[in-house]
Design goal:
Blueprint: H1 21-28, E1 32-36, E2 39-42, H2 44-63, E3 67-68, E4 74-76, H3 77-83, H4 85-88, E5 94-97, E6 103-106, H5 111-121, E7 130-139, E8 154-164, H6 167-187, E9 192-196, E10 206-213, E11 219-224, E12 230-232, E13 252-255, H7 262-269, E14 277-285, E15 291-300, H8 307-314, E16 321-323, H9 326-333, E17 349-353, E18 362-365, E19 371-376, E20 386-388, E21 406-421, H10 423-428, E22 431-433, E23 439-441, E24 443-450, H11 451-461, E25 463-464, E26 467-468, E27 479-483, H12 489-504, E28 509-512, H13 518-528, E29 532-536, E30 544-549, E31 556-559, H14 560-574
Parallel strand pairs: 3-7, 15-17, 17-20, 27-28, 27-29
Antiparallel strand pairs: 1-2, 4-6, 5-6, 7-8, 8-24, 9-10, 10-21, 11-12, 11-21, 13-19, 14-15, 14-16, 18-19, 21-24, 22-23, 25-26, 29-30, 30-31
The structure holds adenosine-5'-triphosphate (ATP) and magnesium ion (MG).
């Protein structure tokens, strides 16, 4: 393609909304274009890279025997009512009505649709296992769309669904998908980790997230260098601190004026934070928006609450639980903001982190203004309605598997796989008949890759201060041939020859034949991140050009034929 004919629009400056490098460079390269918050379009170069990621994904899916179909983004509410998710999904689900007032959604995911296909088209064990997938646009009205393609409201997802006769079958399907995902992300040039994950609103009982490592990522993962433990911090189990070996002392109320935080009370009473109990006050809201129940969760004062573990313990979707309106909760339960402890509460569900059951003589709020209790002991003074692990793992905490210090890292969730089991086949009635004509529930898995988020993750891992540096398999073009002076006959003839030879070698080449200053062309080539640049300048008459991989600082002087051979080899080695 000749740049003189191509629609490109590189920007000298990043639009103000771009906060992270991938967003800056995808906008500045003109590869994506914002329409409204969280909604982006793809321009010619951007769309080429999207299609390459799609194609890599497609090849790896097809290699496992999965079959591609294409379903509508518009989904009738009835199917979501059947699975029970119409309400679980909350405000993220983009709901629309047709002219007859019938409810639909713009699909955030497709478990219901694929289950519906299979329940009506599969009847015999002979038709299983089956894996169907699509590469399609998804809609989620995210509360905080941000970072461009990273968290958008419309995005491209590859979603696959496996259907098996039994759990062993699902294990195999899941493993096939897991391994295919490893190949997809490796081919996309990502540095990533597969980690155990929570299954959230998807349901099911096993899940892994594929996380591209990046400091700006919204996922936090915990891993261990001594064993293979790796999990999202939402999911990672936390070992309880060893139980204290102290005699229980008598419960006392002490005056602690103005000490509303753990730091303040620990300082005032000269206690380590490990000796305090932190209270978190929440409400579970019903479908009508009213409070269904109040919840007080207690963890050791030095710990942080893990919201995912908390909503799992409550058995409610995350969007239905939120920090409570304190005044309303005080009136209903006897809690006192900043001075709430587990003793003296009423009409409220009490959740206790399992670690607290082994702690002795703790300090907690007294449910009385400016007062705390000391020597609070589990069992004697209070009990939990639910006792479970509610805490967030920290750097250095003992690994839940082997005890070595846990490490933390941040990353971008680019894919997730779920063992759904029979959640959808049971709620929606998807059965197959065995050879005795007996009905069995189909055992399912679901598997998603965020195609457009993957593009952003690649940009996040592959850029420098001058622009993008695309890995060859996802680069919009492979080589850019830059003519320093487009009106110089020798230069343009040599550049044309090189360009033609690259095309003949099946290298995807761009020819920058624009009537622009050389500086502008070099800057654009850097921003666009084309993996190899061949520059035809002053030495064109001698048949000498400059050859420079985008990732390297120094250019080489090579003969034209040599430069073509070198570029061709460079690209072929990396495809
Ligand atoms: P997140 O936790 O980031 O909101 P999710 O766990 O809800 O994502 P899944 O339901 O697992 O997402 O969807 C499969 C894949 O789709 C994700 O792994 C991610 O790559 C992509 N994805 C999800 N939400 C978005 C979004 N708002 N914008 C872009 N890609 C997304
Ligand atoms: Mg996910």
């Amino acid at each position: 393609m000749r740049l003189s004919k191509m629609h490109i629009n590189t920007l000298r400056e990043a639009p103000a909304e771009a906060e992270i490098p991938s967003h800056v460079w995808l906008l500045r390269s003109g590869m994506i274009r914002k329409l409204v918050s969280g909604v982006y379009g793809f321009m010619p170069l951007g769309y080429r890279s999207v299609r390459k990621i799609e194609e890599i994904t497609r090849q790896e899916m097809d290699a496992t025997g999965a079959q591609e179909i294409h379903m509508s983004a518009i989904q009738p509410a009835e199917l979501w009512m059947e699975s029970g998710r119409w309400h679980v999904m909350g405000p993220e689900m983009w709901r629309v009505k047709d002219r007859h007032e019938r409810d639909f959604c713009l699909g955030p995911t497709h478990e219901e649709i694929f289950t519906d296909i299979v329940r009506s088209e599969v009847s015999s064990y002979r038709q299983l296992p089956l894996n169907l997938y699509q590469i399609q646009t998804k809609y989620r009205d995210e509360a905080r769309p941000r970072f461009g393609l990273m968290r958008s409201r419309e995005f491209v997802m590859k979603d696959a669904y496996s259907f098996d006769r039994d759990w062993e079958g699902l294990d195999k399907s899941y493993k096939d998908m897991y391994e295919a995902y490893e190949r997809v992300f490796a081919r996309c040039g990502l540095t990533f980790r597969a980690v155990e994950a929570d299954s959230g609103a998807m349901g099911g009982n096993a899940s892994h997230e594929f996380t591209a490592l990046a400091d700006v990522g919204e996922s936090e993962i915990a891993y261990c260098d001594s064993c293979d433990m790796a999990a999202t911090t939402e999911r990672a189990a936390v070992k309880d601190a060893p139980a204290a070996e102290e005699a229980e002392l008598p419960l006392e109320i002490v005056s602690t004026p103005g000490t509303k935080t753990i730091d303040a009370v620990a300082e005032y009473l000269e206690l380590p934070k490990e000796k305090t109990i932190k209270a978190l006050l929440l409400a579970v809201y019903g479908e009508d928006g009213g409070v269904r129940e109040y919840v007080a969760a207690f963890i050791r004062g030095d710990r942080e609450l893990n919201m995912t573990k908390l909503v799992n313990a409550l058995g409610v979707p995350e969007h239905m639980a939120a920090f409570a309106d304190e005044a309303a909760m005080e009136a209903a339960t006897g809690c006192v903001g900043g001075f709430t402890g587990p003793v003296g509460l009423h009409d409220c569900k009490i959740l206790v982190d399992s670690e607290l059951t082994g702690m002795k003589n703790m300090c907690a709020g007294a449910c009385k203004l400016d007062c705390h209790m000391i020597n609070v002991n589990y069992g004697r003074d209070y009990k939990g309605d639910v006792v479970t692990d509610l805490k967030k793992i920290r750097e250095g905490d003992p690994c839940p598997a082997c005890g070595a210090p846990t490490r933390l890292a941040r990353g971008i969730e680019v894919g997730q796989v779920f063992k759904l089991g029979t959640k959808y086949s049971a709620s929606m009635g998807a059965y197959y008949k065995d050879d005795n004509m007996k009905d069995h529930l189909i055992v399912m898995g679901s598997y998603g890759i965020g195609v457009t988020r993957t593009l952003a993750a690649i940009a996040e891992q592959h850029h420098d201060e001058d622009g993008l540096i695309w890995p060859v398999p996802v680069a919009p073009y492979h080589v850019i041939v830059t003519v320093v002076k487009a009106d110089d006959k020798e230069q343009s003839e040599l550049a044309e020859r090189i360009y033609g030879e690259l095309l003949a070698n099946h290298v995807e080449a761009l020819l920058d034949d624009r009537d622009e200053r050389a500086g502008v062309k070099f800057k654009d080539a850097d921003i666009l991140g084309i993996p190899v640049r061949i520059t035809v300048g002053k030495k064109a008459a001698e048949g000498v050009v400059e050859y420079k991989p985008r990732a390297e600082k120094k250019a080489l002087e090579l003969g034209a034929a040599e430069a073509v051979a070198e570029a061709t080899r460079f690209i072929r080695d990396r495809l």
